[in-house]
Hints:
Rossmann fold, 5-stranded mixed β-sheet, 18 strands, 9-stranded mixed β-sheet
Amino acid sequence: MSKPKIKFFSLFFIFLISLAAQAQESLGTYQIRVVPDETDWTYELNQIAKFQISATLNGNQVAGLPLKYSCGLEAMPPTIEKSVTTTAQVLTLDGGTLKEAGFLRCIATVETGGKTYRGLATAAFRPDLIKPTTTEPADFDKFWDDGKRDLAKLPIDAKFEPLPGSSTSAADVFHVSFQNVGLGSSKISRIYGILAVPKSANPNAKFPALLRVPGAGVRPYTGQIALAERGIITLEIGIHGMPVNLPSAIYEDLRVGSLNRYTTYNLDDKNTYYYRRVFLGCLRANDFLTNLPQFDGKNLAVYGGSQGGALSIMTAALDSRVKVLAAFYPALSDMTGYIYGRAGGWFHGFKETKNRTKEKIETSKYYDTVNFARRVKVPGIYSWGFNDEVVPPTSVFAAYNVITAPKKLLLGLEMGHANSPEQGERINKWIEDFLKTGKAD
């Protein structure tokens, strides 16, 4: 009598499994991948670049999707625009060529299910031959020497606030501030940051130091504590003259309010432009670091990306105390590129013709990374990707190519406005090894 019941429950269980199988859905994200046909993504002038484009779902090539692709000089209107249909095989499409050194970008998009999926790749044409469009003012050095003299008139007036919640068994952490030059009628401002100092059983121990300069934006900072735990004094600064450990909502209000588009403030006057106080503030941060009793008196590095990449190059160029630098995708590089029909540096101020006034163009030259890159005399490690749409590689190579000091370049070809984990690890190791041994590989 029990066997029919067992059979019934078995059939019922199979029926439930069948219903569950019918109810489940497989959801995936389409991936659009674009790859140049040269393995190093680099071409000779007048060589045709071909791009391989794939559209996949769950790793499988998808046929029958409407795909649009455009190719042209980076950050400029496309010279090729076409629509095709994806097939079961990877598409290979002609992207054109460049007669002059630069970057050719191919962007592919697919619209399906009410969503747009996008991929891109950027081919380099003799990037080693890219030259700056910006020029150097005759009084460039005098302008910054005068600024440094203004800074030297102000005492550092350092203030320390211990942060026991951030300190560890290997590092003491502080919220710090010190005096800096002001803007316009305000003669004095302050720079704020997070200082981390290695702990040691030896009260007289000395350590190398690293200044971490920030990327663009308005945000709090937590410091570079891990490096301090490994024996390097670190100072991570903000640039806006306000504490860097406030609630995040305050920075967001400033980002969309009074500090929105701060990169353009007073761009028509080199003496009151927003970045004057910022640039000199980085030098004042080095004053602060080198006056710490724990500093070894010799080994000082500066490190940063994007806006921070520009600040790293500038600081190394203007401050002989800096012995090594790391700059990734440095902004503010060859900002006038747009005026000459090619990509210009972030913050893209001259992309709009209305901003191309004589005064703004002239001011930009005193703050362009290119003109600081010419003056770098210490070893540096540099890093970026070809697919960066925020800081165009055209602009970055314009600065990199004028550096005559020892330099090491790490390229993450597919990377956009970020470093790959591999790039980040190499940069950190390179800087740390240099600070501890005084040698670069």
